[in-house]
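Q: My collaborator sent me two sequences in one message, no labels, and asked for predicted structures for both. Can we handle them in order? The first one she listed is below.
A: Yes, handling them in the order given. First sequence, followed by its C-alpha cells:
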Amino acid sequence: MQGVELKPDLHNPLPTGRSDIASVADSDSVQQRLIGQIEADYDALAYESHAFPQTHPSKIGAIAKLYGINVAPVESARVLELGCASGGNIAPIALANPQAQVVGLDLSRSQILDGKRAIEALNVRNLTLMQANITALPDDLGQFDYIICHGVFSWVPKAVQTAIFDTLKRFLAPNGVGFVSYNVYPGWHFRAALRDMMLIHCEQIKSPQHKVRAARELLNVLVETSGAETLFGKYMRSERDILKNSHDSYIFHEYLEGVNEPMFFKDWVTQAQSHGLSYLSEAEHFTNYAHWLQDDAKKIVSTMSDRVMAEQYIDFFRNRTFRQSLLVRSELTPKVVPDLNALRSLHFAGRYAEKPIDGEKVPFNRFGLTGYVAHNGIDISITNPIAKAATQVLTQHWPNSLSFDELLTASRSALELLVANPVETDAVTLCSDLLSMFSWNTVELRTSALKLPPVLGDKPKALAWAQWDSQQGKTRISTLRHDAVGINAAARIVLALSDGARSRDQIADVLFDRLRLGTLTVPDAFAPSAGADDRARWAALRRFVESCLAEMRPLGLYVS
C-alpha cells in the first residue's frame, strides 16, 4: 500500500439466511410435497424482510466498475430479486429510484401478499411482486441489470441451485451483475455439528416456533454442561453469543430447515462457470484480500497465481462460513485487479475520529502516519496529506456521499495550499489511498450520490417504507442508506406518526394521549417525573420527539 497503513479487524461476516424458493426432487409427487413444506414453513414463520446494504445495486455497481464492467445506473436499472420474501430489501430501492423497474419473486404466498399490501398502500408503481417457482420462470420476464439472490442458494436442493445459475445466465443483461449468497466450508463443518444436534433434538416437534424454542434451550444446555476451556465449550459459547439476539426466523431457516448445503468456494465457482458465468468479486470486497491474515498465511496465499484458489485459502485461514459473491456473464472480460481510474466515477462516504499513534499526533497537512478510527470501528493509519484531508471532508459530510471530484476539490482546499501538488498528482494519490481504504473496509463506495436532508421541517416526513415498517411493528427499519436499523418502540411510534402532515407538537400530542392511556413507555431520560402535571409531562414528550428526530435523521429514516 502506498500512503495507507491499516490495522486489521479480523471480521468474519455471518450468514443471513432468508426465504428460499422452490424445492425439486426426482418425482413430481415428492417435488410437490417438498414445495408445499417449504411454503408452509415460510407461511408459518416468515423471514423478517428488510434491507441488506451489500445487495444495493449502487454498491454492487461500484465494485463492478472497479473491474471494468460498464454497469447500468441504478436510477433507471431493471432489478430482480429471487427469494424476495415480502419485498423489504427491494422496496426501498424502488421507492428511491422511481424510473427503475424492480421485480421480486418468492415461493411463499403469504409473504408475497404481505408485500403487495405494502406496495399498494404506498402506491409503489415500479415494483412487482410475484409468487413463483424458480425452476419454471417465464421467458417474458426480460433482462435485468442486477439480479439479487440473498439467502437462497444453500437452503435449496441441488436441482434448484442449478436453476439459480440458469436464471442468472438467462436473465442477466449483457453487462448485468448477479449477487448470490451461500454457506461455505470450512466454517460450516463446525457449524453443521450444532445444526445436526438441533435437527435431531427437534425432529418430533411440528411447530416452527416450538422448534426454535427447543433449539435455543438445547444450545443453552450444551453451553452449561460443556467445559468452559474445552474447544467444544468455547465453540458452543460463541454460537450462543451469535444466536441469542437472532430473530427466530433466522434460527429456524438456517438451522432447522431440511436443506442446508454448504460447499467450498472453488467448487461453487466451478459450478457457476459451467453455466456460463464468471466470478467477479465478493460483495464485501475487503474480504478478497489476504492482508487480513497473519504473516505465515499471507505467504502461502501470495505464492498462488490462481485468484480463486488464493481466495479459497483465505477462506481456510479465516474458517469462513458465508460468502456473498458477484457474477457476470462469461462473455465479459473483467479486469484482474481493480482499476484506479474507475474510482473517479464513483461516490464516497465515511466518518473518522482521530486516534494518535503511540501518543504522537502528526498534523494532517504533513506527511507521516496519522491514526483514525473509521465509522465501523476499524483502525486506519494514513500517511499522505491529501488522504488525511479527505477523511476530514468525508466526516464533515457523513452520512452523505461525495463524488470523487467533490472530494478531491474539498480535500485540496482543506490543505490550504500548504502542500502545493499539481491537481493530477493529488488525484492519483487520492485514488490509490481510497482503493487501499476500500480494501480494508474503511470507506463506502457507490455509483450514485446519497444525500440526506440536512434539517427536518416542523412537519417531519419519514421515508415511506420506513414509516410503513414502523406502523407494522417491525423491529428493524430500512433506511435511505439501505441499512436495517433497530430503534426502540417509542421511537418507532414517532417514526410512524411522521407523515409530513403532523407538526412536532402534534406528534407530542399523540404520544401524550397514549401515555395517559398507559400504552406508551418512553426511555427513562424522558419519562415524566412522579407527580408532574400535564404541562410538564407534555414537555418531556416534546423533548423526546426532538431527540428521536435528531437521532433518526442521520440514519436515513427521513426525507424532509
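Q: And the one she listed second?
A: Here it is, processed independently of the first:
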Amino acid sequence: MRLRTRVEAIDASAGAVRLSGGTTLPYDVLVIATGSRPMMPGIPGETLDGVFTLKNLSDAIRIKAYIRDRHCRRAVILGAGYIAMEMSESLRRIGLQTTVVYRGTLPAKKWDGEFSKLILEEITQHGVEFIPGMKPVAIEKGREGSLRLLTDGPVIETDLVLMGLGVTPEVELAKSAGCAIGGGTGAVQVDFTQETSREGIWSAGDCCEVFHRVSRRWTSIPLGDIANKQGRIAGINIGGRPARFEGVVGATSFKVFDLEVAACGLGEKEALESGFSPESVLVWGTSTARSMGGPRLGLKLVADRSTGRLLGAQAAGRGGAVRKIDVLSACLWNEADLDGLAYLDLAYAPPFGGAWDLIHIGAQELLRKIVSS
C-alpha cells in the first residue's frame, strides 16, 4: 500500500502507472476506483478559507476543527439534497444558526412535492432557515474572519459556507487510459463484471456506471453500498472466479432530524424517459395500526399503465418509511406488478402497521385509478 501517493498518469499500453515523485509502478490488472468529486457553483470566492465541501472523513474533521477554532455561530449551506439536509441537522445540533440557500422552491427535488414539504416543515421546526429561489453570485471576506455570501437577492453574513451541490464522477485518469466514458452519465463505462472498455482495467464505485434494472439503462448512482458491491464483484472476477453485478433498483434513504425519507425505482419523469406510461398515487396512513395512533406515514407508488408493473416508490414519515421502501425494492428487483402487491404477504402486527398495510392500500388504489381512467 502506498499512502500519500498520487497517480499522475496511466500508460495502459505499457501496463504501468506513473506516481507522484516520478516513480513508475507496473501492473498486470488495474482497478480504477477514483470515486467522485464535489460539484462547485463556479463563483468567485469559492476557494476562500471557511468554504467547505463534505465528501469524506477528512473534510468532516476539517469542518469540525474550523467551527471549534473560529468559534463559528452561523453557517450557510448551498444546495438542498440529502447531504445538505443531513448537514443542516448536524450544524443545528451543535448550536449553529443554519441557513439553506437553494435555487429551487422546495428541498430534496427528487422526491414528490408533498414529501419535500414534509422535509421543509421538519427542518424549519428545528430552527433551520430555508431560503428558496436564490442564486449564489460570489463569496467575499467579511469582518473579523466572517464571510459574505452575495446572491441575486440579499447579502448573507456567515462564518462558514458548506457546498452541498452533489458530486460528479472523477474520470480523468480513466480517460487518460483510454476507457470509454458514458455520454449521458459522465462516468466510466463498465460491463456486468466491472471491466471497462479497456481490457485488463476494471472500475468500481462512484466513478463508474451501474445498470438500473427498472429503466434498463446504465446510469450513475454514487452511493456507498453500490460501490462496495461493485468492488467485490471486480475482485472476484480478477481473482479468476466469474461473477456478475446484476445492477440496482435505485434504493436510497436519508434521515433528517426525526423524519425518514426513502425511495426506489423511477419517478414519473424518469419512467416516461424510459418508455413507460406511468401512473401514480400518493396514500397516507400511519406507521402502526390506526388504533395505536402511530406517526403519519406517506407512500407514493408509480406503475406502468399498460402492464400494471411497479416502477417506483417513495415514502416519508417519522417511522416506517425505510421499511416500506426495502419491501418495494425487493418487489422492483423481481418485476412485481400491482396485482401481486395488492395482496403481498407481509409480517403483520399492530405495532408495525394495519392488517391492510399501506403497501396494499396504495397498490389497490392505484389499480382502481388505472382501471377507471
